[in-house]
Amino acid sequence: TIMPLSRHTGQIPESTWTLGFREMTEPWKGAVGCLGVAVFFAMTIGIISWQAVEQSPEQWVLRGRDAGFCYSWEEDAELRLSLEPPAAPGTECYGVRWTPLRPDVTLKDCFSMANVSWYGGPSIRAQRWPLNSAESPAQPLVSGDLSTNPDGFGPVLERYFLGSTGVTVTVAPDVSLLLSLESHRQFCLETPEGRAEPLHYQLCVIPSPGAGNPSKCPAWFPKHLTRNFPPCRSPIWRYLGPEGSAAKIRRGLRSLVRRLKRHRLQEGVVALGERGTAVLAAVDLQPSERRKRQAPALVEPLELSITLSPYASVTSPLFLRSLRGGEAAGYWLSRQPRPGGSSIPLLTTWKGQLCARLNVTSEAALGWYLARAQHLQQALGATYMAFEGVEGNSFLEQDVPAPTELAGDGYSEVLAAALATLGNGTVISAGTRSSHLPLFVQMSPLHSDWSHAGLKGLIPSVLHYSLLGYNFLIPDAVGGSLAGATPGDPELFVRWLQIVTFLPVMAFGTPPWLCCDAWVLNLTRQCIQRHRDFVVPLLLKYSEEWQSLGYPIFRPAWWLSPADPIAFTIEDEFLIGDEVLVAPITEKGQTWRDIYLPGEGHLWLDTNTARVFDGGTTLRNYSANLAEVPVFVK
């Protein structure tokens, strides 16, 4: 369903009405006007359907990018529909462009969720799969930090929506866009009020054969990546010890490594947070200290990951020097100066401190920042570097005009491209138009509970990230890292552990020997072993398919059952490629669940019991005790 116009006047737009029509009563005018609009859209849809299904390409009415229909509501808006080159073989694509003819006209197109499941778009706090049950007021479709704005959009999003009927909606990055989600009713694309900006997007459909198969729809992201993606050395152990001084951090890191060795978990990566990294940087980046220590072995035999961000506190020496001018004067985002005036730094809040943000439009600033990161990586002997705070538009948050290149998610896109030059060991906190880059993406923190903001949201988030091309994701720590309703729950820890075993990286905050008993500790060892021996080879295999064909690595049930309506709403199981189905328990206290086996005509082997079942069926009340996670191999 497309709603062509939302006007402030609430009246039918006049064009060349006859005198007899002008003399009609208002209800009759409205009825006739609505009938005219309905007839226009019926004709448009009919012609598109007729030319796509019944006519040869030589007879098509819409021929090429510049040809097509154009219809105008005088004094309000103009609509242009045009045939565009197909985004993928077997698809047909149409350009839809609305142009306002008055500054007070707001353009709004809505797409129905009735009998259609929609995927893609933004990540949200309590992720759903599909998007149909999500709710959000109209707000800019720009990435954001869910920890500071839980009602906003999350750090990974694309202007790409995929419908279960085989339709895609793709909005160009230069369109100023608001998105609203109305649960089980519709989602709407809207232009900002009072801006008189056009709304244009591309609609692609699969007419035949295989109509309605969303897995055959064109993906928005590039299919050919710039580099291969070697899996991160899993698991990741987050350092949560003292950070008061460099000496305390080093002692804490050594203590963590000793405990990992004692519990026979001496592999993977120790991750140091931003504060700990900054404390060590204050010492290790001093010239005298660099001469004393080159690449200290802080966490051997494990590897080290450090954390940085593009923010600088206003009390930091570097920022204070920049206020006095000189080399660092243009290193930070600034408000656009008035004529004859000087630029003023655009200050924002980051982790409770007033900060300036790196100016990614300055080559000098980017060069300085990347060189500083590389020097710190070498000084600390780090293998991986994680960058937080990549998401968000600081200008939009403060209602300040942004430079053209930083409109929308321009900041995240530019910074991600720069960080990709640091190598395959780079992790970023956001993804928008950057899925083709060799970067790991850190997923948003989840609550320590069983809700969609906690464990239940993990699989929908994985499917969402993977559909948008962000397959090499790092999930939140096992058990969640945000306070929830059930902190320290051993059952929650186990069920979480069973899911992340089948993801690219396993990450831990609270180690298993602190939260749980010896049985859980032993289970953790088994899951790490299974991840290394069973999951990593699968990821390597399907990463090649992703690079060549653009298919996601983690796939929903409908990927193998595109004609079964049941498959479109399953959000608690996922496929790795086409050959492994993971169906974990996500309800507290349950030791059974219903499992949908996709792919009619296929056979599925339960890896726990060696029993074989037919695809296209549902296993009712299938047993899965706390020590088991149902995994099937095709």
Please describe the structure with a list of short key phrases separated by commas or semicolons.
32 strands, seven-stranded antiparallel beta sheet, flat, 634 residues, single chain, 26% helix, 13 helices, eight-stranded parallel beta sheet
Distance between the termini: 38 Å
- What is the structural class? alpha+beta
Strand content: 15-25%
What is the mean pLDDT? 85
Low-pLDDT segments: 1-26, 47-66, 222-227, 289-295
**Which range best describes the helical content: under 10%, 10-25%, 25-40%, 40-55%, 55-70% or over 70%?**
25-40%
Estimate the global geometry from the Cα principal axes: flat
- If helices are DSSP runs of H or I spanning 4 or more residues, what is the number of helices? 13
Identify the strand order in the major beta sheet: 23-22-21-20-14-13-12-24
Domain Glycosyl hydrolase family 31 C-terminal: 550-634
Protein name: SP15 protein
Pfam families: Glyco_hydro_31_3rd
Keywords: Membrane, Transmembrane, Transmembrane helix
Quick summary of this structure?
It comes from Certhia familiaris (Eurasian treecreeper). The protein is of the alpha+beta class and 634 residues long.
Structure description:
- It is a single chain.
- Helix 3 links the parallel strand 12 (236-238) and strand 13 (269-271).
- It contains 13 helices and 32 strands.
- The protein has a domain at 58-205.
- Mean pLDDT is 85; it is low at 1-26, 47-66, 222-227 and 289-295.
- The strands form seven sheets. The chain has an eight-stranded parallel β-sheet. Strands 1-2-3-11-8-7-5 form a seven-stranded antiparallel β-sheet, with helices on one face.
- The protein is flat, with a radius of gyration of 27 Å.
- By secondary structure, it is α+β, with helices and mostly antiparallel strands.
